[in-house]
Amino acid sequence: MFMTQLESAVAGVVTKEMKVVAEKERMDEEVLRSLVAAGKVVIPCNKQHTSISPEGIGKRLRTKVNVNLGTSKDVTDYDSEIEKVNRAIRLGAESIMDLSTHGDTRIFRRKLIETSPVMIGTVPIYDSVIHHQKDLGELTAQDFLDTIRLHAQDGVDFITIHSGITRKTIDQIKNHKRLLNIVSRGGSLVFAWMSMTGHENPFYEYFDEILKICKEYDVTLSLGDACRPGCLADATDVCQIEELVRLGELAKRAKQYGVQAMIEGPGHVPLHQIQMNMEIQESLCDGAPFYVLGPLVTDIAPGYDHITAAIGGAVAGMYGASFLCYVTPAEHLALPNADDVKDGIMAFKIAAHAADIARGIPNARDIDDTMAKARQVLDWEAQYACALDPERARSIRESRAPEEDHGETCSMCGKFCAVRSMNKALQEEYIDIL
Fold first, then answer.
1. Which pTM does this prediction carry?
2. Residue list for the binding site for Zn(2+)
3. Which of 82, 194, 224, 306 could, after both became Cys, cross-link 160 (CB 3.0–4.6 A)?
């Protein structure tokens, strides 16, 4: 009989996926199994996704990075999106979320799942309008459930559902007077659907039905934060925290049913509130993995929000976030192009690595120490080999090489290079400058 990763872990079974993750993380298989059984680690791995190389998300594991991609009504170029996907995977992204909102989304989704070795996530509410060819207010609760089943059958490893807001949230949003209301795209659609139909949130009301679908295919739930703050002024307010309480309750229900779950988090958060946000989530959600968008630590950097968000991501990771959703320079402005995707990934790979070092993940700093040794002997090839982006590092140095370069220095210092001077001084050699 088929068992989910969570059911297997609870039963004391180490699955082949757990073995792969344990080897990648240099972790004892039994330790990993116990973390999965406790709901503190998830291994998103739909049984239909046969091309996947499994990854774990959660406690004591490396911080993972997700990349959002997909078409929109204004930019529908499947070849371009597939190239972005391939580039993201080459650059080290562990997950791709297909957020397509236009065109034949199923063809693109199936292509991703057929060929991708990384986790694939989706937000089924986006696809409900497209798949059923109905406007939002005409969709029924059953339509939403059917779309979730379709995504599960296609092989999606995790889905985001905004199940934490209810009819009560409508009054909260109206009365609390947020500066930016709801900025979650999926959350705003659920809010609008409830407002137009007068019905309860179907992702909350029919949560048990969703659990049955997820259990059948071993789809991991990413419990979406519809009320995540979209600006610093709305951070850590009553709407955000009240929803987080409910998400924690739903995560426990999922765990009891044998379905893996993680919690999505903010948003825009001032730097000094990030640690508190991580600790609140840890307490309210019983240690379930935390999946954060950024968080962005200021609101005034359009065009540079990959930096704004990577700063927050590094701090969030240091204090316990397990999964970072990248942000690109195009955030708040446009659909990201290939260069934006690369900039976003690199910013967040740096943030994730910095967080791993801060958390003391075993062997996380090994590559940094190797880089330091290469720099100490001015071994440029070894430095490139350690770099997160070797091509860019090589290109910058070689495009601005010093006039008298014998492989020792760069054009910043030339013969004033501190490393060169110290090496020569310690070896009692003459140090020529002029």
1. 0.95
2. 268, 332
3. 224
